Each structure stands twice: as structure tokens, then as C-alpha cells.
From TrEMBL:
Domain Dihydrodipicolinate reductase C-terminal: 115-246
Keyword NADP on entry: yes
Catalytic class of the enzyme: oxidoreductase
UniProt keywords, alphabetically: Amino-acid biosynthesis, Cytoplasm, Diaminopimelate biosynthesis, Lysine biosynthesis, NAD, NADP, Oxidoreductase
Catalysed conversion reaction: (S)-2,3,4,5-tetrahydrodipicolinate + NADP(+) + H2O = (2S,4S)-4-hydroxy-2,3,4,5-tetrahydrodipicolinate + NADPH + H(+); (S)-2,3,4,5-tetrahydrodipicolinate + NAD(+) + H2O = (2S,4S)-4-hydroxy-2,3,4,5-tetrahydrodipicolinate + NADH + H(+)
Entry annotation: catalytic residues: H141 (proton donor/acceptor), K145 (proton donor)
Quaternary structure and interacting proteins, as annotated: Homotetramer.
Annotated protein name in UniProt: 4-hydroxy-tetrahydrodipicolinate reductase
First-listed, main subcellular location of the protein, grouped into a coarse class: cytoplasm
Role summary: Catalyzes the conversion of 4-hydroxy-tetrahydrodipicolinate (HTPA) to tetrahydrodipicolinate.
Length: 247
């Protein structure tokens, strides 16, 4: 049984992950980290990662970018492999993750579902052939989501730019002089209700459109994906890993 600590145990994903671990015979939940009261989870909970005095095989992080320093301090100090699912990091924070991965194994993906990772491959293939089409990304999420655009939309734009490096992100579009430029990827964030997560990549050409779309129908797919990543990362040497390394 793999021993797990969840950073962000009180959150929507932390709760779904707790349920998935409790239903599995492959994992044991040691404790969680959250500022909130989590009595209903029946789980030993610390306020910050710095206070944790237990040791696990892996830490899974579904929290907030602001907890990054604490989670890296803890995992480096205890030499614990880390799965990062949290989104919303800036370049400085991404740099810290990359530096830490020289010391401990880190699995990092803004989307733990299998389907989105297939979508990324299809998008890259399409971008090679449809290089002069206009590319727009539309993401839709629930009204509680903190960051915009989604981490997955950023990951999709980065994948397109691996193939078409001259393109630049244009977030939203508004104004009296807002005509589309040829070298942009339009990225649009919709927020409402309980939408779990949808990503639609549109390649619009002259008289034809290709759309590649992924719809998440439950949060379980992300939790189960993070557990698959946990099994993978505990067997790795220090380094920076993502879904491409796992499949
Ligand atoms: N990679 C993937 O596949 C997926 C990634 N995510 C990402 O996981 C993260 C968590 O998502 P979700 O569970 O829906 O979010 P919630 O807002 O429901 O939960 C956030 C968790 O982080 C903790 N937290 C710590 N510091 C802060 C802070 N300053 N502000 C807000 N929360 C804080 C919260 O508890 P407390 O404040 O008490 O400490 C809580 O436990 C997000 O970044 C989301 O985008 C979500 C789904 C899939
Ligand atoms: O906050 C969420 O809910 C989700 N966040 C991730 C993202 O920002 O890409 C992944 C998923 O779409 C759900």
C-alpha cells in the first residue's frame, strides 16, 4: 500500500481524492493539509505542510499556487516524491518546481485525465497540417474555479506553440479594434454552475473547421489519474515527469 499525504484535502478535489483512496486497497491516506476544519473527513489534518510530522511515500497536491514553497520545503526535506495537480503557477513558481525536480521526483500535469493527454497529441498533429488555420481555445469550468485560463488551456497553447512557435496567446477579446491577428491563439474562459471541465480547440480555415474537444464528466477522473501518477512517480529517480513519460 502506498502511503499518501494530500495537500489541499478540504478542497473539492481533495475530498474526491480522499474518497478514491479510501475505496482503494492500493493506497493509505496518512494525513491531509488544509487551513479549514475537516472533521467530516475523519482525517488527521495539519494547517500547513511545514507542520506535518508524518512521512509518506508520496505527496499529492490539489491546492493553490500560494502553498508551493511549503510543499517543496517538505518534500525536499523528507525526500518524498511529489505529484503536482494544482494550476495557476507563474513563471517564477514553475522555475522552483523545475529546480526541486533535480532533488526529488516530481510529476506535474495540469490535467490528470487520460483523454486530455490524447487531445494534446491530436492538437499537435493538427497544428502541423493546419498551420495557416486560425486556432482558438475555449475552456469551460464551474463558477468556483479560482484561476483563468485553466492550466489545461495553457498546456494546450504550449503544445500548439511547440509546433508553431511564432504564435502568441491572446486572452479573451474585447474592444472596438479587436480584429483577430494572424499570429495569435485566442484563449477564452467560460465560468458557470457545476461544469466539471471542458476544453475545445478550434482550427478554423477557409470554408472548413476542425474541432477537438474533451469533456470531463466527473472529478473522479482527475483523482484516479493523480493516483496512477503517484504509482508511477514513486518508482522514478529525481526528475521532472508528465503524462508523456507515463504513457
Ligand atoms: N491537474 C488536474 O487534473 C486538476 C487540477 N485541479 C486544480 O487543483 C487545484 C484545487 O482545485 P479544487 O479542489 O477544485 O479547489 P478548491 O478551491 O475546492 O480547494 C483548494 C484547496 O487548497 C487549499 N488552499 C490553501 N491555500 C489556499 C488559498 N490561498 N486559496 C485557496 N485555497 C487554498 C484549500 O484549503 P485551505 O484554504 O483551507 O487551506 C483547499 O483545500 C486548483 O488549482 C485546480 O485548478 C483541479 C482539478 C483537476
Ligand atoms: O479547477 C478545476 O476544476 C480544473 N482545473 C484544471 C485546469 O485548470 O486545467 C483541470 C480540470 O479542467 C479541472
Amino acid at each position: 500500500m502506498l502511503k499518501v499525504i494530500i495537500n489541499g484535502c478540504s478542497g473539492k478535489m481533495g475530498r474526491v481524492l480522499t474518497k478514491c483512496i479510501n475505496e482503494s486497497s492500493d493506497f493509505e491516506l496518512i494525513c491531509g493539509v488544509s487551513h479549514q476544519n475537516t472533521d467530516d473527513l475523519n482525517l488527521k489534518t495539519y494547517s500547513t505542510m511545514n507542520e506535518v510530522n508524518e512521512k509518506s511515500d508520496v505527496v499529492i497536491d490539489f491546492s493553490h499556487h500560494s502553498t508551493l514553497d511549503d510543499v517543496l520545503d517538505y518534500t525536499i526535506k523528507t525526500k518524498t516524491p511529489l505529484v503536482i495537480a494544482t494550476t495557476g503557477y507563474n513563471d517564477e513558481e514553475l522555475g522552483k518546481i523545475y529546480e526541486a525536480s533535480k532533488i526529488i521526483p516530481i510529476f506535474h500535469s495540469y490535467n490528470m485525465s487520460l483523454g486530455v493527454n490524447v487531445l494534446l497529441r491530436l492538437v499537435k498533429e493538427s497544428a502541423k497540417v493546419l498551420s495557416d488555420f486560425d486556432i482558438e481555445v475555449i475552456e469551460k469550468h464551474h463558477n468556483k474555479k479560482v484561476d483563468a485560463p485553466s492550466g489545461t488551456a495553457v498546456m494546450i497553447a504550449n503544445a500548439i506553440k511547440e509546433v508553431l512557435p511564432s504564435l502568441e496567446n491572446n486572452y479573451g477579446r474585447y474592444g472596438r479594434e479587436a480584429k483577430r491577428k494572424q499570429n495569435e491563439i485566442g484563449i477564452h474562459a467560460i465560468r458557470g454552475g457545476t461544469i466539471v471541465g471542458e476544453h475545445d480547440v478550434i482550427f478554423a480555415g477557409h470554408d472548413e473547421i476542425v474541432e477537438i474537444k474533451h469533456i470531463a464528466q466527473s472529478k473522479d477522473i482527475f483523482a484516479k489519474g493523480s493516483l496512477a501518477a503517484a504509482k508511477f512517480i514513486v518508482a522514478q529517480e529525481p526528475g521532472y515527469y508528465n503524462m508523456d513519460n507515463m504513457f
